[in-house]
Amino acid sequence: MAKRRIGVVMGGSSAEREVSLESGRAVADALKEAGHEIVRVELAAGADMWKALCAARMDVAFLALHGRLGEDGCVQGLLELLGIPYTGSSVLSSALAMDKLKAKELFRLHNVPTPPYYVIDRRQRITELADAHGCFGFPVVVKPRREGSSVGLARANSLSELAEAVERARTYDDCVLVERYIAASEVAVAILDGRVLGAIEIVPKKGLYDFEAKYNVGMTEYYVPARLPPTRYRGVLNLAERAAQALETSSAVRVDLLVTAGQNEYVLEVNTLPGMTPTSLLPKIAAAAGFDFTGLCEAIVSRACLHVGKARGGLCATVDSAPARSAAAPPQRIAV
């Protein structure tokens, strides 16, 4: 691919900041080794994102952000206004995928099976949980409505545990999703620009694939390809593709599913900016499909685009009038 000045945007203010920094560093190192001019755009909590994106003077943005204000359409909207092509899905698709409730509503609209659920919103008190829960049953899985990477995820087996889990999830979002627990294997499917790459089976050693299990080496076992009969494997890939299409995602996405022994599959969520750390699932699946890490990064950045705006409207000049750097300039770090 043609060499361009690529801004690897990482950090941010979400609960996944450290994971984002790890993803961003890995991507930046890989693309630099491939010969691209790289600028590392590290966003700090409370940063002026507009100023930071302009200061980078990048031709294209590789988004290595995770969680709120990075994966939910906010940064994507700024890049659309600035006319800077970016990796990942559009503003709307990013926002819908991050919002677990809206994503589930679209899954149901498109006949994509997803576990039964209900919502505890900001108006409901913990003392009202028994009425809200009713005969929903236990166990359940509790998660914040708008967070990623299993942040705030917990399993509850009783009303008291449910109250604790809801309180904990509310530290991340005042709206909480309560989902029926389904005994099943966890499978993730990777899709790159509409092409299904394959599926990986996830076996967390402590039973729940939460934040700790995701990002600590040795806490989880992985099987690529997922240990499923061929016909069922194809069905899981097809279901993942339908889920991604329901949200109109693009670029590289990961679809998380549950696969039961009783021949049922359920979609949990679609991740529009999958992790790129050593323990991340997308690189593992891509490797089995023939992509080394650098090749995967280049494939993702080659598909960077604007979904709404037009290229380079000149808006950056109104924020920072510094001259553009030459293509021969060394890599630069932008920290705001």
Polypeptide structure, described:
The chain has helices at residues 17-33, 49-55, 74-82, 91-98, 100-109, 129-133, 159-169, 211-215, 230-246, 281-288, 293-302, and strands at 5-11, 37-43, 60-63, 117-120, 140-144, 154-156, 176-180, 185-192, 195-204, 220-223, 252-259, 265-271, 332-335. Residues 317-336 have low confidence and may be disordered. The protein folds into three domains: 5-87 and 304-335, Rossmann fold (3-Layer(aba) Sandwich); 95-113 and 183-288, D-amino Acid Aminotransferase, Chain A, domain 1 (2-Layer Sandwich); 117-180, ATP-grasp fold, A domain (Dna Ligase, domain 1), CATH 3.30.1490. The strands form three sheets. A five-stranded antiparallel sheet has the order 10-9-8-11-12. It has a four-stranded parallel sheet with strand order 3-1-2-13, sandwiched between helices. By secondary structure, it is an alpha+beta fold.
Task: Throw out a few tags for this protein.
11 helices, Rossmann fold, 5-stranded antiparallel beta sheet, 3 domains, alpha+beta, D-amino Acid Aminotransferase, Chain A, domain 1, Dna Ligase, domain 1
